[in-house]
Amino acid sequence: MSFGENLRKLRKERGLSQEQLAEKINVSRQAVSKWEQGGGYPETEKIILIAKNLNVSLDYLLVGIESEEKSEMRKEKNVVPTGKISIRTFDGKTVVTCHKVSVSNVILAGKDEPKYVLNGVDKVSFWGENTTTLGWYANEEDIKKEIVDITKAINGGLQAYDLKYAAKVKIGIIGVKLE
């Protein structure tokens, strides 16, 4: 398959319109259409962004070749990773379909307060990223393990993930405290 055919196939498998993919990599919908029709290639940095957003290797995107191990895993599990995953928030009140998660340090956190917060990004608009607090973490080790497990879940084709390492917290008027 050609690059254009691979791009179109992968984009459709991920449930993305040309416009949605174009927005993710900061190009016009017409550029994506042109590439899919075989009318050229994007710049190298855009190819890398496309591969990341479609969650495939550059080899697979450009010429349709993937490692034998990944190929077998996809056949066995019928997995098509989307790069998105639904995560229930720490309080269980909201489920956020995230295309990105980010970690922030809690500045001036006291002894009984969480040190880190995990945010889920569900969309990007003109005004920036729309984030939702997914969970609070008492230490760096727990948040790192959470990020690794979320990444594995996405790469494994899971559509949903429950936080495993988030600390139990109590949200008060003047802040967040560890329970």
Write a brief caption for the model:
This protein is of the alpha+beta class and 179 residues long.
Describe the structure.
Helix content is 39%, strand content 25%. Helix 2 (18-25) packs across helix 3 (29-36). The strands form three sheets. A three-stranded mixed β-sheet has the order 2-1-6. It has two domains: 3-77, 434 Repressor (Amino-terminal Domain), CATH 1.10.260.40; 85-178, no CATH class. It has helices at 3-13, 18-25, 29-36, 44-54, 58-63, 68-77, 140-155, and strands spanning 85-88, 95-98, 100-105, 116-125, 128-137, 160-161, 169-172, 175-178.
Please describe the topology of this protein.
Blueprint: H1 3-13, H2 18-25, H3 29-36, H4 44-54, H5 58-63, H6 68-77, E1 85-88, E2 95-98, E3 100-105, E4 116-125, E5 128-137, H7 140-155, E6 160-161, E7 169-172, E8 175-178
Parallel strand pairs: 1-6
Antiparallel strand pairs: 1-2, 3-4, 4-5, 7-8
Domain HTH cro/C1-type: 7-61
Keywords: DNA-binding
GO molecular function: DNA binding
Give the end-to-end Cα distance, rounded to a whole number of Å.
55 Å
Outline type? elongated
The portion of residues forming beta strands comes to 15-25%
Structure annotation, total helices: 7
Stretches where pLDDT is under 50 for at least 5 consecutive residues are: 67-81
* Main sheet: strands, sense, barrel: 3 strands, mixed
Strands in their spatial order, largest beta sheet? 2-1-6
H/E order of the elements? HHHHHHEEEEEHEEE
Main structural class: alpha+beta
InterPro entries: Cro/C1-type_HTH, Lambda_DNA-bd_dom_sf
GO molecular function: DNA binding
Keywords: DNA-binding
Protein name: Helix-turn-helix transcriptional regulator
